[in-house]
Design brief:
Number of domains: 1
Largest sheet: none
Distance between the termini: 11 Å
Helix content: over 70%
CATH superfamily: MetI-like
Structural class: mainly alpha
Order of helices and strands: HHHHHHHHHHH
Number of strands: 0
Shape: elongated
Radius of gyration: 22 Å
Strand content: under 5%
CATH topology: MetI-like fold
Oligomer: single chain
Length: about 260
């Protein structure tokens, strides 16, 4: 129990710190993240804490601004996934029968496909932009959410309070919204944090593979990719954004794993 409390507090502390960095990035960043200079690939110094990239831009400033991009993508994609997955999972788990079987088959098909490969294909087809990236990630995450919600509803629909609601003539919509939904809030909250972490990681992976936000966006995955060619000159150009992705993903995951 103490271990779970420690992980919860650490996760929330880190997430709050990252959110504050994202909010106050314009004031915390010492330079404009997209401002080029003649100091190309400069090593870490008092002025440029982790050096400059191949265009002379301050890597530390871009690292701070990258928190905004990652959080927006991760949280927005999770909201899209939840918006699809929760209603579908609740409906499938409650009605059961042939409808449930058909929905489960669709969910299983989506889950069986490699997420990163599907993201690469869809992004390559529809183009790269912030809204497109959010929609693609949301469409990839909803089956996992729907499957978990369905499993919870299958258990709850057999409980006495649901049978009592059915006996007094409550509609399906009322039963789902007033009796079942409040009992799956904690599971949904845990999944929200976990799906956010995986969305951030997937977005960074797409950026590393060249299908993230187009330049000059300060994106952690893109920073790792652009700094990879200069590892021997300044490894921090890749290590710093890579560590930022790892820390953010780990923070959200710890919250999701410790939700009671």
């Amino acid at each position: 129990m103490r271990s779970r409390s420690w992980q919860r507090y650490l996760g929330w502390t880190l997430v709050c710190a990252i959110v504050l960095i994202a909010i106050f990035a314009p004031w915390l960043a010492p330079f404009d993240p997209n401002m080029s200079s003649s100091k190309v690939l400069a090593p870490p110094s008092a002025a440029n804490w982790i050096g400059t990239d191949h265009l002379g831009r301050d890597a530390f400033s871009r690292l701070l601004w990258g928190a905004r991009v990652s959080l927006v993508i991760g949280l927005a994609a999770t909201v899209v996934g939840m918006g699809i997955g929760i209603p579908v999972g609740m409906f499938a788990g409650y009605v059961r029968g042939k409808i449930d079987l058909a929905i489960v088959q669709v969910i299983d098909i989506f889950i069986s496909l490699p997420a990163i490969i599907m993201a690469l294909i869809i992004t390559a087809v529809i183009g790269v932009s912030l809204p497109n990236l959010i929609i693609v990630l949301g469409l990839l995450k909803w089956p996992i959410i729907a499957r978990i919600v369905r499993g919870q509803v299958l258990v709850l629909r057999e409980q006495a309070f649901v049978e009592a609601a059915q006996a007094v003539g409550c509609t399906t919509t009322r039963i789902l919204s007033r009796h079942i939904a409040p009992n799956i809030v904690r599971v949904v909250a845990a999944q929200f944090a976990i799906v956010t972490s995986t969305s951030i990681f997937t977005a960074a992976s797409l950026s590393f593979l060249g299908l993230g936000l187009p330049p000059p966006a300060a994106d952690w995955g893109g920073m790792v990719q652009s700094g990879f060619d200069f590892m021997f000159l300044n490894p921090w150009l890749s290590l710093a954004p890579g560590a930022a992705v790892t820390l953010t993903v780990m923070s959200f995951y710890m919250i999701g794993q410790t939700v009671d």
